[in-house]
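Quick start: read one record
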Amino acid sequence: MATRILWGSLALTPVVLIAHYAFGLNGTAAFVLSALALIPLAWLIGEATENVAEHTGPGIGGFVNASFGNAPELIISLFAVSDGLANVVRGSIAGSVVSNLLLVFGFAVLFGGDAELDRRSSLLQLGLVLGAVAAFLVPSVTRWGSDTDTFGLFLVTVPVAIVLLIVYVIVTVRNLRRHREEHDAGPAREAWSMRVAIIVLAIATVATALVSELLVHTLDSFTEALGLSQFFVAAVVVAIVGNAAEHGSAVLVAHRGNMRLAAEIAMSSAAQVAVFVAPAAALLSWIVGPGLPLSFRYIELATMAVAAGAVCVVVADGRTRRWEGVGILGLYAVVVASYWVAGDG
């Protein structure tokens, strides 16, 4: 029954897009409909990813999910840069890394319970996040210690972004090669073909990008009455919306007993945001705007580092336990509270 409802709910996507582009629907109604439309899209991406994983194994399956799930986030970042919202982009990048590691992984552990993980792959992804945070210190410290203008900070960002992208490509290629060599089992008989799964992923990703863009553009009208800061909205609301696909799919596959895939989705997504989405958005930003410096605030760098460190402790023994999921979610609640207090200052 639940599956039939989710299939039927996919109709919300064309409904909300037609209502907006053909009839000018905006404001709170557009926000709510967009948020509801993202739920079945997240489920569909999760379904397709599970079928890809039947052919490739959880490591590559998690990478595929993170790649398709983060594509909308990169698109949203470029739209925000073109609107002059650099602080929103940086806040959403930091919030995305934190939400993937604490919110997504926390719920996955809570629903998945006691299970084994690919310890080597998990620590590698977390190491990428910590390495990215260290790299972000270069333009960030430059911003903290001087009155360098935006263009000057962008020039400092460019070599940092290039190095991060090179590291990401090298590490990802080696990690995927290892996963491919370790996966010997064939696909289950009921699994979709690889071609069908990839096509579904691509269509669902495009739809998610369109719906996410609409939702982001209607955030102001939805949150204005609540008196929320722009930073809080970017780091919590936009980050959760931008990662709706990973949120839903990771929890779903964990609930079905595939905790290895759920962990790969959460951690691969966090690593991709830090080492691919952030530098790619920075390098592409000059095409659509004045350039995006990766000069983060103290609170943004600190919470990304704390999130990665906390998850490192959890996965160090290669196993997860349900109570650890509760602890991770509690830490995310503390981070959200700190974002609330930090505000736009």
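The mean pLDDT is 83.
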